[in-house]
Each structure stands twice: as structure tokens, then as C-alpha cells.
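Retro notes, item 3 of 5
We never archived the inputs for the zinc ion complex last cycle. Fixing that now. Sequence and ligand:
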Amino acid sequence: MPIDLHLHTHHSDGTFAPEEVVRRAKSLKMTAISITDHDTLSALPAARQAAGADLEILTGVELTAVSHARELHVLGYGFRDEDTAMQDTIRRARERRHGRIQLMIDQLNARGIEVTRVEVEAIAGEGTSIGRPHLAEALLKKQVVHSLNEAFDRYIGDQAPCFVKNAILTTADAARLIRQAGGVAVLAHPYRLVEDDWIPSLVADGIQGIEAYHSDHDPSVTRHYREIARESNLLTTGGSDCHGFRKSKGPLIGTVTVPDLCLEELKQALKGSDPFGSKRV
Ligand code: AMP
Ligand code: FE
Ligand code: FE
Ligand code: ZN
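Structure as it came back at the time:
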């Protein structure tokens, strides 16, 4: 039965409401999903309510964290969502997101591009964990660019001139936070972001799994990360990373095949989870 462990809603940079994600998951006959919004858990209650008993919702989050001077994404699964340290950290991360969007707007303005925080916040909506896709959409709406990709390539992508880092955590901080809340920490979509020879240090930081199945990974890339996972004794996970219509290819939910075994092994790891975040075998 299909599962998808990497989904976004409009509580961060996706375009679907949690209920819409659940509706689509059910119509695709999925048995389990995880909503992994950036730095927020606010989609969870609505998703759980909409899911009822027919669809399992695994608690999830996608945290931004620095390693090797690069911003990476760390997925957290199955942690206690009421955990105080988790709640506190993601609130600080969301606050940082607002300040950081303003810094990127300042950089754009300095280059003669007129875009305001009010415009970007209007696209994101009240209470949303704001991010670059909202800024990209504002630039598209103002016809500064012709596509969201162009906004990233020319202005706000990781290597582009107006990019400002977002992370308030290191990968070790992120893994510790997730594990101390009883969860499992997984390196998200490593392709083109993470050098293979960083893996040992990420494992030493507390990373327990790797997202081998992802919409950016073709079958040979997935095989490559499964092999790395096997060698390094890591779990494998996967999902589509659906952002609704805020991705050039449109809604990705259901487009990535993730083996059920991934979820079973993840649950096994969660059962063995200890509150002190010490390394698991
Ligand atoms: P942020 O969390 O604000 O740093 O924004 C990261 C998000 O921007 C990612 O989760 C993707 O949704 C999106 N993103 C990052 N790089 C690109 C890109 N090159 N093209 C399109 N979307 C991107
Ligand atoms: Fe995103
Ligand atoms: Fe990501
Ligand atoms: Zn994501």
C-alpha cells in the first residue's frame, strides 16, 4: 500500500490545506503519511482530524540545519509533538524566518527590485512558516521573473546573490532535539546537497536515516543512497516532498514509490527510542 513520508501544507511552503493533503492521500489509497512542514507542527491537528481512523499520520517536521557550511534539511519523525524543547525551537526558527525574509528583501531592494514584506506575507498568509517559495511567488507575481525556478536561479537559490541563511541549528542540534523528543532524525533529500564523504560526520551528529526515495532521486540515485544506508547502518525513508502547486511539476503526492518496509523499520527504531538520544544500534 502506498505511503508518503514527506509532504508540505500551506502551514509552510505547500499550497494545500492539511485536509486537502489527507483527501488526496486517501484517494490514492495511502495507508500512512507524514506531514513534514518546515519548522512548524501546526498542520497536525487538522490532518489528524481529517484522517480519522483510515489513514495513519506519523508526526513529522523538516528542520533547517547547518553542516559543512551548507544548509541541509533534517526530517524528524514520530517525536512527541508536545515536547517543550521542540515547540520552543521551532517557534524561534519561525521567528528567524521572518527576519531572514526581510534580509533577502533588503538585498533585492538594493538591486533595484521592488518587493515588500507585506506582499510576501500576503502570499504566505497569517501564521505560516514563511520561506523562500513565498518570496519567489511574489517575484513571479510582480513579473520580476517568469518562473519560480528563475527566482531561485537568479536571486534566492542557495548559491544566488540575495540568499540569506536560515538555520538556527547545526545538524547535531537538530538530531539531538528530535531524538530527545523520542523521535528519529533523518537526512532529507541528500542528492546534490550532501557530499557522500560527509555521511560519517552526520551519523556522528546523530542522524539515523537517509531519505533514499524522493522526487529528486532517480532510481540510480535511490540505489546509491540505499547502498550508503546499508554500509552506514542507517534507516531509509522516502516521500514525494509535495508542495502542492508550488513546484514546477505540480502536485507530487503519490509520484514516489516508498517501500512499506521503510515505515516498519522506522517504527521499530521509534520503539527502541530512548529519551536521552544516545546512539541506537
Ligand atoms: P527556505 O526553507 O526558506 O530556505 O526555502 C526552502 C524551500 O525552497 C525548499 O523546501 C523548496 O521548497 C524550495 N526550493 C529550494 N531551492 C529551490 C529551487 N532551486 N527551485 C525551486 N524551489 C526551491
Ligand atoms: Fe519546501
Ligand atoms: Fe527539504
Ligand atoms: Zn520538504
